[in-house]
Every structure is written in structure tokens, then in C-alpha cells.
Amino acid sequence: MSDILLSVLVLGGSLFVLIKGSDWFVDSAERIGLSLGVSPFIIGVTIIAFGTSLPELASSISSVLNNQSEIVLGVVIGSNITNILLVLGLVSTVGRVVKMDYDIMDIDMPMLIGSSFLLWFCLADQHFSFFEGIVFLIGLSIFLINSLSSNEKSELERPKASWRDVFLLILGGIFVKYGADFTVDAISKLAQGFNIETTILAQTLVALGTSLPEVAVSMTAAMKGKPGIAVGNVLGSNIFNTYAVVGIPSFLGELVITDETISFYLPFMVACTILFAFITNGGRITRWEGYMLLLFYLFFFNHSFGIF
User: Which residue from 35, 55, 92, 126 could staple onto 210, CB 3.0 to 4.6 Å apart?
Assistant: First the structure.
């Protein structure tokens, strides 16, 4: 029991280190990039885009390198489900009616739905090939190019990067590396202690942990009367998760795909994505729809652990 408690504490601590390191890394990289004259566009669709999913990407890469590659799909599927059901559910219930600032049905939502179905199609044979990894990188490139072309140009002041920025960039990178390693190790030990699959822990506890900063930002935006920001965050994060967090680690080792991932969790993620498209089709998410999303999240969590 003491070993399990220790693993829980290590998991919580490593997730904190991983998320904090990601924040330092992204913020410092952004300031250094701007000080060197890098276009705000490029920074917005590379550093910041990678930054939103850096904890998931780092933990997935670490899991492959440590022969725990089944964690990769757990993190991706769990994060995508958590973003839709929990983040949007909370935002819709605590704030006003969530209204979209632009037409997400034009490009963004079709890209999200397409990425979900592509992932389902590629994993149907329980094998993710090198060629499929290339396809996902192409999808990632299309997503980044679309983000680049759709962002408005703005002239930002060029801040002067200090040694503090360089120090935090390096320290953030170290935190990300070791935070991810300890997260994967804690998941493995907890799975052994509770005799459950590591995939289950990855798609629930790790996905929840890495989504907490996004929950906080989205809730703050909702209480300030800008709940639509959360919709854009979820769209971008889920597309990036699918293409980058699956595609990049796949070149470092073979991804293990469990039977239950194919039979339930992946179809459930696709269903959540379709539900997301359906409820936002009118350009808004109502409070009762938010409660419905939260109920679906409780169902997902209960199915994973069999609490009720």
C-alpha cells in the first residue's frame, strides 16, 4: 500500500513538474524567438501550438523510449475526450452560453472530424505503420499551414531576451524530460499495483492532469465573458494531439494498440468529436448541453475504473 501511495505522489509531482516545465519552455522560447526577429506567425503556429500539447507529446515520446508505448494512444484518446467533455462541459455550465467568435464549421471542425476518423481507420488493424506516420505528419503540416494563413498579422514589440529566458528555456526542457520520464514510470507502477492496464491510467489520470491548465484557462475566460476561447483551444489541441502526439512517437518505436482501445475508447472518442460538431453547429453551446457533456465524462471515467 505504501508503494502505491508513493507512486500516486510521484505521479502528481511529476505531472506538476511536466506542466510547469512546459510553461517555462514555451514562454521562454516565445520571447527568445521574438527577440531574434522570428515572425509572430511562425511562433504562434509552431512554438505555441507545440506548447499546448507538449506535456502529452513528451510523455508519449518517453513511453515509447521506455517500452511502454501503449501509453501513447491512452494519452491522446484520453486528452481528446477530456478536452471535449470536461473542458467544454465545465465552461458551458459555469459561464454564459458559449458563443463561437467565428465559423468553426468552415475548416476547423472538418479538420478535427477528419483527423479522428483517420486515426480510427489507421488503427483498425491494430498496427500503425511508418507510412501512416508520414500521413500524420502531412496532416500536421496542413494544420499548421492553415493556422498560419488564418492568423491575422500583428506587429509585436521585439522584447529583449535575457539570460533568465535562456535559463528557463533550458530548465523547462529538463523539467519536461524528467517530468515525462517519472510520469511514465509512476503509471507503470500504479498499473501493476492496482492490476489494471497502463492505457487506462494514461487516458484518465494523465489526460486529466495534463488538461488541468487548459481547464483553468478556459474557466477563467468563461468567467470573464469570453467562453468561445475554450472552443478554439479544444479544436486546436485535439487536432494537434492526434497528428503530432501519435505521429512523432511512432517513428521512435512500434505503438502498442490494445483490444479495448479499438473496441471502445477510440469509437467513443470519435463519437465525442461528432457530438462536439453537432452541438456547436448552431454557433453556440447551451448550459444543458454542458451538463450533458459532463455526464458523458462521468460515464467515460466510470467505464475506465468501474466505480459504479
Answer: 55
